[in-house]
Design brief:
This protein has 126 residues and is mainly beta. It has no helices and eleven strands. Strand 7 (68-73) and strand 8 (78-83) form a beta hairpin.
Length: 126
Amino acid sequence: QVQLVGSGGGLVQAGGSLRLSCAISSGIFTRYDVAWFRQAPGKEREFVAVIRWSAGSTYYGDSVKGRFIISRDNAKKMVYLQMNFLNADDTAVYYCAARPNLGRTWVREAGLYEYWGQGTQVTVSS
């Protein structure tokens, strides 16, 4: 069983930065992908970024590429999302999620992630 706890959200001005954290509680945690999704009011849940736990390789959604950085700390079992150059369109509830890594393909669909943390609100003021 994998449990995720997201944190770090808050209110930030446009152009600012924020770092989200996802704490992972599990037994053996090697062949997993850990992702961040976000959901704004009235919109579908959107893929943000994913990291492959074993290799540390990453993949980003187009809307955050070049601004956000996903990383992990193996020893602490933490995944981070460093968000830079924030704008109003980044306002959403952010969720971390995990799924077993069954192959080399990156998965962007929220429905294919098995484990979810509670959301953390990010609000960007313009």
